[in-house]
Amino acid sequence: MNWEDSLTNIKGVGPKRKEALKNRGLETVGDLLSFYPRKYIDRSVLGCPDSISEEAEISIRARVASRGRVQRIRGNLTIFTLPLLWEDKKISAVFFNQPYIKKALEEDQEYFFYGKIKITGSATKIINPQFVSADNPGNFFELTPVYSHIAGIPNNAIQKMVLQIFDDDLKIKDHLPESIRKSEHLLSIKSALKVIHLPKSPEEVLRGIERLKFTEALKINMGIMSNSFDKKYSDIVITAFDGINPVMNRLPYELTKSQLSVIDDMIADIKSGQVMNRLVQGDVGSGKTVIAIIAACLMAQNGYQTAYMAPTEILAQQHGRSFKELLDGTGISVEVVTGSIKAKEKKEILERVANGEVSIVIGTHALIQEAVDYYNLGLVITDEQHRFGVKQRSRLSLKGNQPHTMVMSATPIPRTLSLILYGDLNVSYIDELPKGRKPIKTYCYDEASFHKIVGFLEKEMQKGRQAFVICPFIEASEEMEEVRDTETVYDQLQEKMNRIYRLGCLHGRLKNDEKESVITAFNRGEIDCLVATSIIEVGIDVPNVSAMVILSAERFGLSQLHQLRGRVGRGKHQSYCFLVTNSKSKETLARMKVIVNNSSGKTIADEDFRLRGPGDYFGFKQHGLPKLGLLNPMEELALINRTKIIAEAIFQSNEKEMMNFRDEVLQSFYRDIEEVSFT
Ligand code: ADP
Ligand code: MG
């Protein structure tokens, strides 16, 4: 079988499965082999009763102590609790919505159970475990790859398909030159894919991942080098610089020293005659937007257009408002183009962009996927928050006539890393917050204190402030009854606040216009308390909000918590953030402490890195979750550095194999780099 062969060559893939696979973008053998397992289940680790930890996923050998009982909870949710004896420790197996399991487990018999451990008070539970008779465990202990769900195709069917592909004499060309593969002690691409899909041990999987990540990192380095090969002179002529002064004078505040120096950097870039490539790095709330506005204004006054890409539609709308407000009356026209505006309106706007009537176009990243014709694009600003998409940036830059580029980022990346990632892009740092900001008072509580916290929110709202309540999920989940969701919390608060305060709810499943109207209402102060998912993390800016509660806070990463908290404390009021978690795990509490005690994104990122440790490279240790197809540059700096040297050697080599490889990579660069997303 070959890489390009259709998946219909595999036994068992009929029209129905073909369609299901196609919906996931899987049509060829190569597509399926690039569909990496989301995680692996390793049931071979047997836990021991005196050393268990919360949240761990382990196997235990236990005896069914009694028959257990099925409880019916609201609606059609059932919980089957089965008491077990694990050596001499009591533990219960808890099954959500699987009452039929009661029949499958016999009293006084021994089984292996595999699942997540929960400890509440003195009770220990294993949640929704898989199980097998201890007398006949079959293949229970083999490492099992788990793929993202594809409707209509069970996990083991994917495993069988992959097995067939490898059994049927798979041919894959390895593009990586043999000499590099040998000197770096890497697996061939075929062996790497084989151990990733059909692993015998976790060590094997790591070897496979190492090979794939190596190639990804190498390609990124080669792409960046090829980019910086052609030094670009700019055709954009900017002569009038003082047009921005009136706009700066209109600001209701004074710019910070850092902000002013970024503006100086930007002006110096533009005066240099070369194409500007500038990364503006500043913590949440440091005031990056106003710099974007001033840069765009400079372009407009010299007759050039600016495209501003926001990470989400909500943000695009919000920035649209900020730009329009500040540029009102200057004659500079600003338009927002997003997926949700009506076709007719969009067509009109795009026409006005094409004939130069619109100076500033704001939109989501999707903006660049569509054919937007600019009259004369002078500047592309990308607001990346904390995502990087190397490819997207390059692509939009290709559209105009070598426009200047500015990237706004809140990710505190180490300087060396930004050099590698951004190549010759220059970096400006905003390392101070606007004057008068009070540090956000942050606390960590358990769920039992939630009603007290709500009381606190009510006091704030009584003073005219607003509040956020953040939940990890949208709706209640059977598997994770203890994790908060916006629906349940909204209902609870509605009841508690006795309809005195106005509540709103915001999450990703609302339609775009529904989201928009919730946000508008919140902005106008027509909603006092917004219950939301982390959707608000990206840049919502409402200075009147003084309190935030983050429920099931252990579910969020540290940098995400920092981003979320950055949504409060944007005005003159003292602001508060409450992290709420019921977790007793030492690690979780240490993580919460980092947020409670620190306010700088940089320190939090460093602490995060320190707590997780370099040993936890692929997250294998904690979650058994290697992340494939994802390179995390913060953690894999060493790999990026190592491949940088090799990339340089490839560019200098005149060996045939090396040159061929270089050509192949460069040709496929724009296609491939898109698949490498940084998180
Ligand atoms: P971010 O860097 O996270 O994108 P924003 O640009 O959204 O931050 O700015 C956060 C808030 O700070 C906004 O309400 C903005 O108007 C305000 N702001 C920006 N610069 C200053 C300043 N120099 N002084 C006071 N407030 C400022
Ligand atoms: Mg911002």
UniProtKB/TrEMBL annotation:
It is an enzyme of class 5 (isomerase). CDD domains: DEXHc_RecG (cd17992), RecG_wedge_OBF (cd04488). Residues 269-430 form the Helicase ATP-binding domain. Its EC number is 5.6.2.4. The keyword Lyase does not apply. It catalyses: Couples ATP hydrolysis with the unwinding of duplex DNA by translocating in the 3'-5' direction; ATP + H2O = ADP + phosphate + H(+). The keyword Mitochondrion does not apply. GO terms for molecular function: DNA helicase activity; hydrolase activity. Residues 449-615 form the Helicase C-terminal domain. Keywords: ATP-binding, DNA damage, DNA recombination, DNA repair, DNA-binding, Helicase, Hydrolase, Isomerase, Nucleotide-binding. SUPFAM superfamilies: Nucleic acid-binding proteins, P-loop containing nucleoside triphosphate hydrolases. Plays a critical role in recombination and DNA repair. Helps process Holliday junction intermediates to mature products by catalyzing branch migration. Has replication fork regression activity, unwinds stalled or blocked replication forks to make a HJ that can be resolved. Has a DNA unwinding activity characteristic of a DNA helicase with 3'-5' polarity. Belongs to the helicase family. RecG subfamily. This is ATP-dependent DNA helicase RecG. It comes from Acetobacterium fimetarium. The gene is recG.
